[in-house]
Amino acid sequence: MFDLTGKRALVTGASGGIGGAVAEALHAAGATVALSGTREGPLQELASKLGDRAHVVTANLGDPDAVEGLPKAASDAMGGVDILVNNAGITRDNLFMRMSDEEWAQVLDVNLTSAFRLSRAVLRGMMKARWGRIVNITSVVGQTGNPGQGNYAAAKAGLVGMSKSLAYEVASRGITVNCVAPGFIATAMTDKLNDDQKGKILGQIPAGRMGDPAEISAAVLYLASPEAGYMTGATLHVNGGMAMV
Amino acid sequence: MSDIADRVKKIVVEHLGVEEDKVVDSASFIDDLGADSLDTVELVMAFEEEFGIEIPDDAAETIQTFGDAVNFIKAAV
């Protein structure tokens, strides 16, 4: 349905469940993809599964120099970046009163600051091309809050405010900036929860199940498509009805 | 008119879609040539590329008119 032939997409956190699915969906629609993540093994595996039009650009987004180098590496590999998906995210959960400055800063650096710096870097090419798509992966907890995730929820809510501000600035240049806010999706990140925690969470989800990464990547694919040109500054909530906002 | 001024004028005319005779030394990008703040950022980017120079943000802020741009670039290249 959506054709991304000739578009070049940089996806961060592509070694994770959602990022991998996003890369696959964009690639299947015809895009060239640059897969970024910290672990080269899974990225290479995904790239060889995808075949042509897939590049691996490893980067640890907790390292400021790596954030600086990533857009250039992606651009060198693909000839430019038309679509940026800021998906990389880490958690350092702790009760607020016990949360260290380091836990706070690490999560803000990777989940929010890197998205700002990567977006800023790719905008120049998008402005010249008068076309661009930035999709930031946030989280239902950015909207609802979550005990033990003060840092993560702050970063995710921060992405929403950042996206709206940037969306204002570049809308007249054919560039859209949107967010996708997943609820609980079955990935390695949510695998860490025990059965008791999972049971409690499922009780709050009208759909009665966790989401599949492909249900997130479908939303990203839409926002990345030419058809979504009139949608900007928005957040698509994909959460099985867990938070109807 | 110098080569640099011609090249700067060409960029301004193309980017802002204004008549060439409106682009005089005293013409303000925003007040006279209809640029918005993002246009001025794009113009600076275009100057940087055309002339292979770096225009730092604090210098970019001082470039208000076509004449400012030409003078800055002449000094920088």
From TrEMBL, chain A:
It is an enzyme of class 1 (oxidoreductase). InterPro entries: 3oxo_ACP_reduc, KR_dom, NAD(P)-bd_dom_sf, Sc_DH/Rdtase_CS, SDR, SDR_fam. It comes from the Bacteria. GO terms for molecular function: 3-oxoacyl-[acyl-carrier-protein] reductase (NADPH) activity. Residues 7-188 form the Ketoreductase domain. Coiled coil: none annotated. Its EC number is 1.1.1.100. SUPFAM superfamilies: NAD(P)-binding Rossmann-fold domains. Transmembrane segments: none annotated. Keywords: Fatty acid biosynthesis, Fatty acid metabolism, Lipid biosynthesis, Lipid metabolism, NADP, Oxidoreductase. It catalyses: a (3R)-hydroxyacyl-[ACP] + NADP(+) = a 3-oxoacyl-[ACP] + NADPH + H(+). Pathway: Lipid metabolism; fatty acid biosynthesis. Homotetramer. Belongs to the short-chain dehydrogenases/reductases (SDR) family. Catalyzes the NADPH-dependent reduction of beta-ketoacyl-ACP substrates to beta-hydroxyacyl-ACP products, the first reductive step in the elongation cycle of fatty acid biosynthesis. This is 3-oxoacyl-[acyl-carrier-protein] reductase. The gene is fabG.
Automatic annotation (TrEMBL), chain B:
Residues 2-77 form the Carrier domain. It is found in: Cytoplasm. The keyword S-adenosyl-L-methionine does not apply. PROSITE patterns: CARRIER, PHOSPHOPANTETHEINE. Pathway: Lipid metabolism; fatty acid biosynthesis; Glycolipid biosynthesis; KDO(2)-lipid A biosynthesis. SUPFAM superfamilies: ACP-like (SSF47336). Carrier of the growing fatty acid chain in fatty acid biosynthesis. Belongs to the acyl carrier protein (ACP) family. This is Acyl carrier protein. The lineage of its organism: Bacteria, Pseudomonadati, Pseudomonadota, Alphaproteobacteria, Rhodobacterales.
